[in-house]
Amino acid sequence: MRLMKSLGVCALMVSVAACTTSPTGRSQLLMMNDQELDQMGAQAFQQYQQELPSVNGAPLEYVQCITRNIVAVLPPEERDQNWQVKVFKSDDANAFALPGGYVGVNTGLLKVATNQDQVATVIGHEIGHVLAHHANERASTQGLTQLGMSVGGSLLGAGGGAGSDAAMAAMGMGAQYGILLPFSRSHESEADTIGLDLMANAGFDPRASIDLWHNMAASGGGQPPEWMSTHPSNSGRISGLEAHMSEAMALYQQAQAAGRVPQCKAPSA
């Protein structure tokens, strides 16, 4: 009876997923509400501030200027949030945006992204994750995967023995490499596309995204095989950006004609 109930919950989850789509039209499974996600974002942002020292002055003003220009072209419900921006002292070339309106950029990224347009590439990408509800989708997908494995374990456990243990281990590997990691690569590629449009619409040159990922490739060393990674390869990322560049350039030209010409001053080295 418990197994039939679990299967019924799985079916309900899948039916809900079919009714939801991302900004690019991709089907999504979203099971958490915005209030829960905003709270999680606030907690994560607070934790990050406890782990790394913040940087003020010119670096913060620079990142705030870039973020402000991108936020200005967001849909009203996202644009009107009280966006908080921090720069953290860390050599990791990394950045993030969280549900609830939080943006963090590491100083290491400002060494790899050499101008405002390249920094806007990353901030647009990270805000793209928020617009596409990727945190919600990841949590929902992981929950459904765990439920499916629990149901599968109940079925396999009926037989017992070493064969069941091996089958469960195989299910775990399949979930990791066949569901969760490819899903994450899908998120990254989608955020690249959304972010390219955001930066272009804000008046940042989308062609700088290609330069950024060449810089990332030069500074990042070796990469794991793409099928074992949560991110697309640098070359795959560049190909995806190039495929969408004509649409982004049209947005960029419209933004320039409308007077959206950001002038964010980079901090001196």
UniProtKB/TrEMBL annotation:
Residues 1-20 form the signal peptide. GO terms for molecular function: metal ion binding; metalloendopeptidase activity. Keywords: Hydrolase, Metal-binding, Metalloprotease, Protease, Signal, Zinc. This is M48 family metallopeptidase. It comes from the Bacteria. The keyword Ribonucleoprotein does not apply. Residues 63-243 form the Peptidase M48 domain.
